[in-house]
Amino acid sequence: MQHLLDALVPPHCICCRIPLRRGAAGAAVCDRCAAEIERAPGSVVRADAIDGGFAPLVYEGVGRRLVSALKFSRLIAVAELGAALIVDRAPSGWLEGALVPVPASPLRALRRGFDPAWEIVTALAGQTGMNAAPVLRRGDRGRQRGRSRGRRLARPPRIAAVAPAPGRVLLVDDVVTTGATLDACARALRAAGAASVRAVAIAAVRPR
Ligand SMILES: [Zn+2]
Predict the structure, then answer these.
(1) How far apart are the CA of 202 and the centre of ligand 1, in A?
(2) Which of 44, 36, 28 is nearest to 76 (CA)?
(3) How many angstroms is it from 8 CA to the middle of ligand 1?
(4) Residue 33 and residue 16 in contact, taking contact as beta carbons nearer than 8 Å
């Protein structure tokens, strides 16, 4: 029986990777990370073309660890936890319409074979019953990560809708830094017929 539990319950905290005590029923997060998540203030997400944005965690401490665990360790449990935090803390009335993932760059998606935004959308769809509508594609203009804030804002990603957009959209990404990508997504969605575009992410850089 213990072998079965070990296989089902990750033996390490999905957030900081410290070993977990056995038998903590279903817990995938250590006490310290759980406490940090519990008291996280959340963050407003800003981008010109969206009607509002929200992330349950700021991109520091536990928020940063969770996003890394999803992006680099590909832990689906993190997508489920992030989605649960969004569902729990989103302003009322936000979990309506269709879920549109922020598209990964084609090169990066190909290289990794794993798309964090899509995993969060899948988890959110499962938890809320909302539909997923992956209608956006991104042309590749190289990497955003590692570029300065100024350069990222000056050169937003090229994003287009490849199908009519739902009228009411909840855009989903793993982390929001400058908001330039969300802005480009929202403009493409509006051009494709969306009337309302809100955005959520697991974590967002604290507004300056
Ligand atoms: Zn932890």
Answers:
(1) 16
(2) 28
(3) 18
(4) yes
Contact 159, 125 (CB under 8 A): no
pLDDT of 4 above 90: no
Identify the sign of the CA torsion 57, 59, 60, 61: positive
- Structure confidence at residue 123 (pLDDT): 96
- The Å distance, Cα 116 to ligand 1 centre, comes to 20
Give the Å distance between the CA of 20 and the centre of ligand 1.
Answer: 9
Task: Measure 24 CA to ligand 1 centroid, in angstroms.
Answer: 13
The amino acid at residue 109 is: A
142-163 pLDDT, tens per residue? 555 555 655 555 577 899 999 9
* Alpha-carbon span 196 to 51, nearest angstrom: 7
Distance 179 CA to ligand 1 centre (A): 28
| Sequence-separated (6 or more) residues with CB below 8 Å from residue 70 | 78, 79, 82, 116, 119, 120, 174, 202
The pLDDT, as a whole number, for residue 140 is: 66
| Cβ contact 131:98 at 8 Å | yes
**Residue range 55-102, pLDDT digits in tens:** 999 999 999 999 999 988 888 889 999 999 999 999 999 999 999 999
